[in-house]
Amino acid sequence: MIGWPERPFNPISVPAAEGMTLPEAMAGPAGLLLFLGLIPFVRLLARWNKTAGIVLPAAAWLLLTGGVLPGAVLVGWVAVATGFVVLLLRLRRSGRLGRDAGLALLWIGLGALFLPLWWKADFAWYGWFDLETRPIGWLDFRPSPLHFLGFAYYYLRLLGWGRRELLEPGSPGDWRATLCWLAYAPTMRLGPLIERDAFAEQFRTWDPRGPIAWRRVFYHFGLLVGGGVVAGVLGHNLGIAMRPGDFLSEPEKFSTAALLGLLYGVPIALYLFLWLYNELAAVCGLLIGIPVPGNFNWVPLSTDIVMFWRRWHLTVSGWLRHNIYFPLGGSRRLPLLSLLGTFLFCGWWHGAAVSFLVWGGLQAVGITIQRWWSQRTTRDNQPHHPLWVAFSWLLTMNFATITLAIFLDFEHAGSRVLLELWKRLA
What we know:
Blueprint: H1 22-26, H2 32-35, H3 39-48, H4 50-66, H5 68-93, H6 99-119, E1 127-130, E2 137-140, H7 145-148, H8 151-167, H9 175-183, H10 196-205, H11 214-241, H12 256-288, H13 305-311, H14 314-325, H15 335-350, H16 354-377, H17 386-408, H18 415-425
Antiparallel strand pairs: 1-2
């Protein structure tokens, strides 16, 4: 009997002693650190064969960090999903499949492949051999593979590629470029999303013997190291503050100062994690010679919610805009419903937790209110007073941080901790 969807593992809701293990971390986005050591082999192999240079080190890295079974499942899933998209595109180019029917089949087919991974959070195949046990046992990975292993991003990439080609059928393109696009390690687990055609053009002109843009490498590496120090200090202090228990489920155990520190500190830590991952992806891409697009454009400088979403996770935001928001009508008709559809899809895509949907709905409502206010207060494009800009920045950062705290509370959607703070501060 099929039950309710399983909530994904939440590392901030478990005691510090039960936090993320090193194998679990390496099986996720943090495992990209290990790929740095394989980049010389990427460039060396690519001098002989560019496809082999991308695919073979990526396969070795996937098996090394994610494990044999998880890697095999991911490769099999991507192969089936890609084969399905290619079949639809061939039928469309031959005239045997119409545009609308092709789009409907694309959404239904990829959704059917995605849904089991969304519905279930714990899989018997998601783990690695536990070398510390005798005889050797099996170590289950607790985080959901949906995002940790990269299924969710492959889902978006294949949907976007299929939709573009179904709308405007073109030539099939080089299958080797498509294979390398799918296997490119810096974009495999947590983005950034890169369109197939954009990658194919970079792959075509890529010279593995060419010079490395060391100035850009050092710039991003410097940000990575500096941000890593900040994240490490913040994580250490959050770990100390969280010792009394789960502040999301049992906020009464914490002082008001500790609750406020955690309410703001944990979302900031999430932002740092995502930002640092994308700086790491940028370093890897530059060292290989196929750069990846930037994903975060100094988010803390945002002074309104629309600007926030123009700076936050840029490639996913762009994907949502072109594949969900505009097809729903955008700002031309029923903009609130278009925003709700877009952000509820974004929340659903993150996994089976009510908090994701609540977060998505709040983003849509917040953007609608901000647009309404801007239309009534902005005149002749005159700049606002600096005090108003400062107030807008403070309001935006509080909105973003608190809604991220709601997002991170998979079980209660922030209701307990926010209610506890309201009772104490009101």
